[in-house]
Amino acid sequence: MADEQKQQSFEQALEQLEQLVNELEQGDLPLEQSLKKFEQAIALSRSSQQQLQQAEQKVTTLLAEQQQSGNDESDGELM
Questions:
Q1: Could you report how far apart the first and last alpha carbons of the chain are, in Å?
Q2: What is the mean pLDDT of residues 28-44?
Q3: For 4, how many CA atoms within 13 A lie in the half-sphere containing its CB?
Q4: Mean pLDDT, to the nearest integer, of 41-54?
Q5: Residue 40, exposed/middle/buried by CB under 10 A (0-12, 13-18, 19+)?
Q6: pTM of the entire structure?
Q7: Considering only Cβ atoms within 10 Å of each terminal Cβ, which end of the chain, N or C, has fewer?
Q8: What is the DSSP letter of 29?
Q9: Helix, strand, or coil here: 52?
Q10: Phi, psi (rounded to 5 degrees) for 9
Q11: Most distant CA atoms of the chain, gap in Å
Q12: Which CATH number fits domain 2-78: 3.40.50, 1.10.287, 1.10.150, 1.10.10?
């Protein structure tokens, strides 16, 4: 299950998480099934959070590189 979640795209994980939440909110499931779905939802949530953190790091890195590149170009104009 964990390997399957890591291979999912963020959008797929979010869609599955929404489906699990809807099923749990209906309250029609037996306790054991509810617990199993809750565990799946927690795992999906953690995986999605990790994907978001990785994306944020990439954006931060790219912006820093762009800013550094812009600074290098403006330094060349002064000479």
A1: 59
A2: 97
A3: 6
A4: 96
A5: middle
A6: 0.71
A7: C
A8: S
A9: helix
A10: -75, 165
A11: 74
A12: 1.10.287
